[in-house]
Specification:
This protein is an alpha+beta fold and 183 residues long. The chain folds into 2 domains: 6-61; 69-174, Sandwich (Immunoglobulin-like). 26% of the residues lie in helices and 40% in strands. It is built from 3 helices and 7 strands, in the order αααβββββββ. The chain has helices at residues 6-9, 13-30, 37-61, and strands at residues 69-79, 81-88, 100-116, 122-129, 135-144, 152-160, 165-174. It is globular.
């Protein structure tokens, strides 16, 4: 059995919302206004779950539909000039063809701030990016296979400034390789 595409199902967020509104109103009218909102919500949720399950299966089986990424952020202290870095991330960076984005910027220590992480836990960061006078950039991004520490990425951090600076680095790895590679 082939899985229909989203265009074949003609599902969109607005379609699902419109259908939800119709189901809520229809249920309320059919009960003569006597059904509680909780009862209607449970019935509509049961009906809509089928739509969401189908949509999720279609999205997850079509490589063109959804691509997720994972990011990690860290601070490099006292950087000046050109510095070669290596970051191993086993299980995330899987090959030399992995799509890896790296950003860097001047950072200063600050009061801790928290964000909600992907698994629901709080992640604390005790530094902030700072737009200062230094030129800070990343070059020569080169993902690599397992080199004894799992897959990873080598890159150059450049800081063009008269004094050493703290540099915040964010590495983001796409879950999929490129759609096309031209040789």
């Amino acid at each position: 059995m082939s899985v229909p595409s989203l265009s074949q199902l003609q599902l969109s967020f607005s379609t699902v919302l419109t259908q939800s509104a119709r189901l809520y109103c229809g249920q309320y009218i059919r009960t003569g206004g006597g059904a509680t909102l909780a009862v209607i919500r449970r019935q509509v949720t049961d009906e809509l779950n089928d739509v969401f399950v189908v949509q999720h299966e279609v999205v997850s089986k079509d490589p063109m539909e959804v691509s997720m990424s994972q990011s990690i952020r860290f601070l490099l202290r006292g950087v000046r000039g050109r510095h070669r870095q290596n970051f191993n991330w086993p299980g995330v960076i899987r090959s030399r063809q992995s799509v890896v984005h790296i950003t860097a910027g001047e950072a200063t220590l600050g009061s801790p701030s928290e964000v909600l992480g992907p698994n629901g836990s709080l992640i604390e960061q005790d530094w902030v990016y700072h737009l200062g006078d230094a030129n800070v950039w990343v070059s020569n991004i080169s993902p690599h296979d397992d080199a004894g520490g799992g897959g990873g990425v080598e890159f150059i951090v450049n800081v063009d400034f008269s004094a050493p600076l703290d540099v915040g680095v964010t590495i983001t790895v796409e879950d999929r390789t490129p759609v096309e590679i031209q040789n």
